[in-house]
Amino acid sequence: MSSMNFSPDDEDAQYRDRFREVADSYDWLAMRAVRQESEDLHVERYSLEFHRRLAKEGLVGLTWPTPHGAGARVDQQLLMAEELECQGFPGYGLTTNQRGGGMLLRSGSPEQIAEHLPHVVDGSWTYCQGLSEPGAGSDLLSLRTRAVRDGDHYIVNGAKLWTSSAHISQWCSLLVRTDPEGKRHKGLSLLLVDLKSPGIEIQPVWVLGGWRVNAVFYDNVKVPAANLVGEENGGWNVITGNLDEERAMSFGGTETRLIAARLIHRLQGMADQLSEADLETLGRFVMELEADRLLYLRVGLAAGRHEDTSGIGPMSKVNGSELAQRFIQWAADLIGEEALFASDDANEDVLAADIEQQLRVATVLTVIGGTSEVQRNIVSTRHLGLPRSN
Known about the structure:
By secondary structure, this protein is α+β, with helices and mostly antiparallel strands. The chain has helices at residues 10-24, 28-41, 48-56, 74-86, 92-107, 110-121, 235-247, 253-266, 276-304, 312-335, 338-341, 350-361, 372-383, and strands at 127-130, 146-150, 153-160, 171-177, 188-194, 200-206, 212-224, 228-229.
């Protein structure tokens, strides 16, 4: 009976090795500077400097066709992204900007692609998504931000909430209602909005994880009609690809594997000081984290085969986010009071400080990107074929 081989082949490994060369060029002082920039920007796992470094190395948009990308397979992109996260580098900037570029490749006009993709690839433009609103979070289809056509422009009025990285982005992929009579997903459109446009106000919303999301207000904002992505009133078809990509991301699983590996390194030679229950729990978490990794890879490989991942992506999202919460709570209890008072100062316990921060960060993982309840409903209908409830 033959065994299954999950090891990368030589072609796959080139992207992992290229990233390792980048990672190896960062000593602890350089890594602390990256961590400090993320803290100063008040955005989780985001460094503009590091994102530009990846762009300089040609590692942004790997799976995109030439001339915009390298035409790499999705599994090769996943291998590099996993290496990035597992070495503790900030990956949010890479994924959020690639989602914006991927949306344009799928649905944008040739003019939009020609204008935006070079700036995504070289790291000079950054993007965010304007989706959720006050009163329209998980129930995204009840959004009320309006865009009215006025000659060669749309006039946008409304408010968005939880807009991550809006304060450091040049562009926002804004989901608006263009047909007030349209119900739910009908009558929605997607506009690319320059966040420096008159009439836009960005206010910080501070969250438990220690960073800011934003409330963004649009007051008679003029957006060129040429910035409509896809067809008018066809915005739901445009944004669903982005939502599927978001749900297929690793929501906590990859970062948790890194912390677990660091914790095991800390505990080396201390087995006699741990209870049998803690040793068994740690072993179970290691197995669950590896299973979560394989589920994450399954989603990525299915996407690479152009299969529908709208059912299995939410499975990965639910599993990874809930597993991250359970593990970090256990790890914080195991570390004890060190996790409550540590900082990442060079003279302090950096692991304990990271565990404490991840304990706060993990609280939102089952909410952002769609709550676990919403994800389970998607899995039941799209993957298991169960009927929708009335």
